[in-house]
C-alpha cells in the first residue's frame, strides 16, 4: 500500500513546475536585472538540473518496481494494450532525459560561470551623461 510518499512526491513535482512558471512570469518583462542576479539564478537552475538525472532514474525504478509487483492493465484511452511495453518505452525516454539533464546542468553551470564576474554600474537609460555627471 502507498504510504502517501507518492502523493508528497507529486506535490513536490507540482511545486517545482509552479515555481519555474512563476519565475518565467516574473522575469518576462524585466529589463533592468543586473548580471549578478542572473548569475545567481543560473546557479539555482543549474542545481535543479543537477538533481534531474537522479529524479529520472528514480522514476524509472518506480515504474520497474510497479511492473514487477503490481497487476497492471492499460485504460481504454490508448491503443497500447501491454503495460510492460508502455513502461519499457517510458523507461527508454527517462534514460534519454537523464542524459539530456546532465547536459543541461553542464550548460547552465557554464552560463553561470561566464556571468559570475560581471559587475554592473547601473542601467543605461539611453541619455548621454553630462561632463558634470562624471566623477
Key words describing this protein structure:
67% helix; mainly alpha; 135 residues
Q: What would your notes on this structure say?
A:
The chain is an all-alpha fold. It contains three helices and no strands. The termini are far apart. The model has no long low-confidence stretch (mean pLDDT 90).
List the helices and strands and how they pair.
Blueprint: H1 5-27, H2 35-69, H3 83-115
Helix pairs in contact: 2-3
Can you describe this structure in just a few lines?
By secondary structure, the chain is mainly alpha-helical. The protein contains three helices and no strands.
- Helical content stands at 55-70%
The biggest beta sheet reads: none
Rg for CA atoms: 23 Å
Which of globular, elongated, flat, extended, rod-shaped describes the shape? elongated
Number of strands: 0
Separation of the first and last Cα atoms:
71 Å
Structural class assignment: mainly alpha
Q: What number is the mean pLDDT?
A: 90
H/E order of the elements?
A: HHH
Instruction: Enumerate how many helices there are, as a single number.
Output: 3
Extract low-pLDDT stretches: none
DSSP strand content: under 5%
Amino acid at each position: 500500500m502507498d504510504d502517501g510518499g507518492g502523493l508528497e512526491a507529486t506535490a513536490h513535482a507540482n511545486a517545482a513546475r509552479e515555481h519555474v512558471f512563476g519565475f518565467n512570469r516574473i522575469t518576462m518583462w524585466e529589463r533592468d536585472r543586473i548580471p549578478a542576479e542572473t548569475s545567481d539564478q543560473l546557479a539555482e537552475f543549474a542545481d535543479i538540473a543537477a538533481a534531474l538525472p537522479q529524479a529520472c532514474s528514480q522514476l524509472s525504478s518506480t515504474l520497474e518496481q510497479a511492473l514487477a509487483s503490481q497487476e497492471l492493465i492499460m485504460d481504454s484511452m490508448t491503443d497500447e494494450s501491454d503495460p510492460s511495453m508502455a513502461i519499457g518505452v517510458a523507461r527508454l525516454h527517462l534514460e534519454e532525459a537523464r542524459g539530456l539533464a546532465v547536459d543541461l546542468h553542464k550548460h547552465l553551470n557554464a552560463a553561470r560561470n561566464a556571468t559570475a564576474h560581471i559587475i554592473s554600474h547601473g542601467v543605461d537609460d539611453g541619455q548621454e551623461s553630462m561632463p558634470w555627471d562624471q566623477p
